[in-house]
Amino acid sequence: MNVDIAVNLLWCNPGEVGGSEEYLVRQLAGLDGLNNDVALTLCCTSAFARAHPELTERFAVRSPGRLGGRRPARIVAEHTWLARQTRGFDIVHHGGGTTPLIGSRPILLTVHDLQYLELPQYFSPLRLRYLRMMMPRSVARASVVATPSEFVRGTVIDAFGIDPARVVVVPHGVAFGVAPTAEQVGDVRRRYRLGDGPYAVYPAMTHPHKNHRLLLAVMARHWSDPTMRLVLLGGAGAADAEVDRAIVDLALGDRVIRPGRVPGADRDALIAGATALVFPSRYEGFGAPLIEAMALGTPVICGDHPALREVAGSAAIVLPDDVDAWSGALDEARRRRAELIAAGRERLTHYTLEASGAALLAAYHRTLT
Questions:
Q1: 288: CB partners within 8 A, 6+ apart
Q2: Same domain flag for 335 and 357
């Protein structure tokens, strides 16, 4: 007999919620590949349905229509439309970190991170008040809380005093497709005007905690090869204007490439051709670009944050948040390239779509007990 599960994806405005969107999309795709006893209904906006046909062609969909990117409209929909739509389901899975104050139970709640507790200065006063009010209540309402890493699991247990048996890890999963060819890498080099020199890639929205300023300072002070390029991928975040100013102030305009969001094929080719993927973030719940780079055979250099250390294991160069500490990182990545690529391939065995889907399925079953 199937277990009927409603998945609340109203929070997911495509392209604007960072890695949490890819996280849920990938684990649901991984779940679909398993022989399982669950039947999913995705409660999502029409924009999400259009952006992810790979899911909406596999699962039932219910949509309230257009909510746009407005958080207040989404919150109202969760307390009205969603509450009505999810009656009668065996489980409601809220994937965006919080649950509405009313609605059906039992609940599986996905908490991506608790950044608002560690770095409150990066949140608007209104958003901070909302999270401080809603997170404890959401965790209390949930039968089970799913987190992407042991790091986040520990912070949830410590912050809310929840029974550890109610908090489980559902890791990210990556699909291993065909690696970009040399011709595809050469094509993106030409189209993004990277020249023939070395380059590093940082795929991250320009939020303050992503720490783009460290890379720019390293470029100005240490990575001074005039043919060296830094490629910053991803959408505009709260620190976007600050990043632009720093590029001008440090006279890096011709050495920093900012194409913003790019098609997935271009993104993969850019990462595959890089000397390294660099990831100096000061806070992460997981750090999916690390395993994405490993899947593409690219060495990883990352910041010394608990979640990044957990994901990377021994398959990355891990450095403190210090400009001078990053000075020789690219040279080390070149020297250890074969070693790091081999370690990355081994690390990937922990982060397949199947492993992510299986962990989600286990979380659903635990929610019923």
A1: 19, 22, 23, 172, 174
A2: no
